[in-house]
Design brief:
Blueprint lengths: L1 H23 L3 H26 L9 H12 L20 H4 L1 H24 L3 H19 L3
Helix pairs in contact: 2-3, 3-5, 5-6
Length: 148
């Protein structure tokens, strides 16, 4: 009887492992929503940084939070375009997946530019120049890998 109970417990545990693993793998639609939210976050922080530094809106005391958040969020962009998320309602071009090397370079340019903004802020460097590089990184990637 004890062997039967152990066998049943092991069988139940094994059968539950498959659904739990499936829960960890997001559906393509959910991956796309997540990706879009991450990209909106990057755009939001970038827009806030430009608003504050351009004296258009915002509070100077918020600048650091936006810069740090942008730098941190830019490091996950490389992870939010899995192959199964190329379908669905999205402005991501197929070139993200067919030109993976070029896309990886564009994402690295974004990461470097965001890190450059943070470094300029922390070290009293040329924040304007760093922001120009950031804008160029965003534009370059969008021109090649995002449809209008």
């Amino acid at each position: 009887m004890m062997k039967t109970r152990v066998a049943r417990t092991l069988a139940l545990a094994a059968s539950l492992a498959i659904p739990v693993a499936a829960l960890n793998a997001a559906e393509p639609e959910e991956q796309i929503k997540y990706r879009q939210n991450v990209m909106k976050s990057i755009g939001g922080h970038t827009g806030a940084i430009f608003a504050i530094t351009g004296d258009k809106a915002g509070d100077d005391s918020h600048l650091e939070a936006h810069i740090r958040s942008l730098a941190a969020t830019s490091t996950i962009v490389k992870d939010i375009f899995p192959p199964e998320s190329e379908l669905g309602e999205t402005r991501a071009k197929a070139e993200i997946w067919t030109d993976a090397e070029g896309f990886a370079e564009a994402v690295k340019t974004l990461e470097d530019a965001a890190a450059g903004v943070l470094a300029a802020y922390e070290n009293g460097g040329d924040l304007g120049g760093a922001l120009k590089d950031l804008g160029g990184a965003c534009k370059g990637c969008h021109d090649e890998y995002r449809s209008d």
